[in-house]
Specification:
Layout: H1 2-14, H2 20-28, H3 35-43, H4 47-76, H5 80-101, H6 104-113, H7 120-130, H8 135-164
Length: 165
């Protein structure tokens, strides 16, 4: 399903003469952390530039989320139906806060670094903001997790296929 979505996006952007590398970057800005790398694999793009573009796109999204999630949640509280939803989210997060605080740095790295959860880095940024973890440490943990996740993913999409086929 995601491969089909990537093909549609690539074809759409290619109509406007957007290079494949820029497509990888744009897709990496989206919450599906590996969509840029899937596009790179499908387009058979070079490994190192693709990896760098995907990491930069993922990290930029994380920075935006770390900086603005708190403000968005505050604005959402002003909307009656969203108020209930944000209150539920904050209550759930606060209940789990003591469990997460001790292992927050390593927990964020592991959560983001294991590429089994689509959108793990945006989720981790939102959790870190909601728990009021220090932005610098949260950013570092999530960035390390992004690099690990992308390394694992690129191994399965670029390296292993070359070795096997």
């Amino acid at each position: 399903m995601i491969e089909e979505w990537v093909h549609v996006t690539v074809n759409f952007l290619n109509q406007y003469n957007v290079t494949s590398e820029v497509v990888v970057f744009i897709l990496s800005l989206l919450p599906f952390s590996q969509s840029g790398l899937i596009a790179a694999a499908l387009l058979r793009l070079p490994l190192i530039p693709t990896f760098i573009m995907a990491c930069i796109g993922n990290v930029l999204l994380t920075i935006v989320l770390l900086l603005f999630t708190k403000k968005v949640l505050q604005l959402a509280k002003r909307v009656p139906k969203l108020d209930r939803l944000t209150s539920k989210i904050e209550t759930r997060v606060r209940k789990q806060q003591t469990k997460v605080e001790g292992a927050s740095f390593w927990g964020l790295i592991l959560f983001v670094g294991l590429p089994f959860f689509p959108g793990a880095h945006p989720t981790a940024a939102i959790v870190a903001t909601t728990l009021q973890l220090p932005i610098g440490r949260s950013f570092l943990a999530i960035a390390i997790g992004i690099v690990i996740s992308n390394l694992i993913f690129i191994t399965f999409t670029h390296v292993l296929p070359e070795l096997i086929f």
